[in-house]
């Protein structure tokens, strides 16, 4: 009996130490104790601050972490990345699936009012919102040469961030970890996933419990993405059958890198037909003046600068996109042209609420971010970085990751004309995996919410009915539903 008692005591002590370690491991200096604009108790703990990914250059990436409201000890940890390249992940935090819904304070610069978001993704997972690369959002470097960057450097820095972050929060090392994002994060997510897997296989410490990734309306491949818009516009009834057939014949189905006068003329005709639509959701209005903005106070979704350009050309888009991108603009030495070279701003949207909150001195202080006087104002999408798309097509990344057993969820709002679902559906099919869950509707509350098809090796494609480019912004309830189901390993 005595021996049995002695054996039990150390085990009990170990369990107590582990419990204490879990509660006290997170850096208390990063704890967000108040959220300006929000009254009441937070449903879970929030942490925020900087992780230095290059000590010599002083390159620092900013994160905001929201613990799961359900069971942070067991629930998945999910990294969220917005696109651009050059757009802040506070876009997702403020407008999509963050813990709050933001209400205007009444004027452009007044502090917004925050309310709890019933469809926050932190209902079922711990969320990390990361501004990446340096120069984007609240992230910065003391060496401006770091603002010349690209896909591969961004992925390497984000991997460094994750290793250091898990070192700071070791209590989450055993939790399943996923990487997620939308838009140009269709490049960020698979390239970072590749770095994480390479690190795991190479013995990088700490060991990340990586399980898979998800991409929404994401850039993937120049040819597939570039050829998706014209068929999409035709299928949505924006372009007549005769005009579509004329363009298809003149361009021989090659819309993204077309040559010849007949093809250019046909594309210009299509351009003229759809040029005044909101490219991020063809059902939503697109305001062009302060007058219309006052009538439509809600934010319309943002864009990103590159739709999967190679080191040679941008994919073809239309004049409406031409506010931000020319039709076949050259990419100078592989560099994505800066936003303001082609546009005075992001068309069809407003980021006033997010800007008012993130440029407020009390907010910066509360979330442990550098003040405006130090790193400048927050921008939804910046033109301060020179970005090279140097990773090429993402199809090989998806094949490599899924064949190694990592789950992948590719979802598309079916009314987005920026990265149309037609391209995403085509490239997922092109991988060549066998179908294990044939095309069918998926439901929420007894209603069809979209369509899905499942493939071998854990690859799933799904549409969200009636959603635009930023799915959780348009369909928050449906987004939380598919997100929760996929994380749990359930069928949609």
From TrEMBL:
Coiled coil: none
Signal peptide (residue range): 1-25
EC number: 3.4.16.-
Gene Ontology MF: a single term: serine-type carboxypeptidase activity
Annotated keywords: Carboxypeptidase, Disulfide bond, Glycoprotein, Hydrolase, Protease, Signal, Zymogen
Keyword Zinc: no
One Pfam family matching this protein: Peptidase_S10
Keyword Cell membrane among UniProt keywords: no
GO terms (BP aspect): proteolysis; secondary metabolic process
Homology family: Belongs to the peptidase S10 family.
Protein name (Swiss-Prot/TrEMBL): Carboxypeptidase
Organism, as annotated: Brachypodium distachyon
């Amino acid at each position: 009996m005595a021996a049995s008692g002695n054996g039990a005591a150390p085990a009990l002590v170990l369990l107590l130490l582990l419990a204490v370690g879990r509660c006290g491991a997170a850096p208390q200096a990063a704890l967000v104790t108040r959220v300006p604009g929000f009254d009441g108790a937070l449903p879970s703990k929030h942490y925020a601050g900087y992780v230095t990914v290059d000590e010599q250059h002083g390159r620092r990436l900013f994160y905001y972490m929201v613990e799961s409201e359900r069971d942070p000890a067991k629930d998945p940890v999910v990294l969220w990345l917005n696109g651009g390249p050059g757009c802040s992940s506070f876009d997702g935090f403020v407008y999509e699936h963050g813990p709050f819904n933001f209400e205007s304070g009444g004027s452009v610069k007044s502090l917004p009012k925050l309310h709890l978001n019933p469809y926050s993704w932190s209902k079922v997972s711990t969320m990390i919102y990361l501004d990446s690369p340096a120069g984007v959002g609240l992230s910065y470097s003391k060496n401006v040469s770091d603002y010349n960057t690209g896909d591969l450097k961004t992925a390497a820095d984000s991997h460094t961030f994750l290793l250091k972050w898990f070192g700071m929060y070791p209590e989450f090392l055993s939790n399943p970890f996923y990487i997620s994002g939308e838009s140009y994060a269709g490049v960020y997510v698979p390239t970072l996933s590749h770095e994480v897997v390479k690190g795991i296989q190479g013995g990088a410490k700490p060991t990340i419990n990586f399980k898979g990734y998800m991409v929404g309306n994401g850039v993937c491949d120049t040819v597939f993405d570039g050829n998706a818009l014209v068929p999409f516009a035709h299928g949505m009834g924006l372009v007549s059958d005769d005009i579509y057939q004329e363009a298809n014949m003149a361009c021989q189905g090659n819309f993204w890198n077309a040559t010849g006068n007949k093809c250019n003329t046909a594309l210009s005709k299509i351009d003229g037909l759809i040029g005044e639509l909101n490219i991020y959701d063809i059902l939503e209005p697109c305001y062009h003046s302060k007058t219309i903005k006052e009538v439509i106070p809600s934010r319309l979704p943002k864009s990103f600068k590159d739709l999967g350009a190679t080191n040679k050309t941008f994919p073809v888009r239309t004049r409406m996109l031409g506010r931000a991108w020319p039709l076949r603009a050259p990419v100078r030495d592989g560099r994505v042209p800066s936003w303001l070279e082609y546009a005075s701003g992001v068309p069809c949207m407003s980021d006033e609420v997010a800007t008012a909150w993130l440029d407020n001195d009390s907010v910066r202080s509360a979330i442990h971010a550098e003040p405006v006087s130090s790193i400048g104002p927050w921008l939804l999408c910046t033109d301060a970085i020179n970005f090279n798309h140097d990773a090429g097509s993402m199809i090989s990344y998806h094949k490599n990751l899924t064949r190694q057993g990592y789950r992948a969820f590719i979802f598309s709002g079916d009314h987005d004309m920026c990265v149309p679902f037609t391209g995403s559906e085509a490239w997922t099919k092109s991988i060549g995996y066998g179908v294990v869950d044939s095309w069918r509707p998926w439901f929420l509350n007894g209603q069809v919410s979209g369509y899905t098809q499942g493939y071998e090796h854990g690859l799933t494609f799904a549409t969200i009915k009636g959603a635009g480019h930023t799915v959780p912004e348009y369909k928050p309830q449906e987004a939380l539903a598919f997100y929760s189901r996929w994380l749990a390993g359930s069928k949609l």
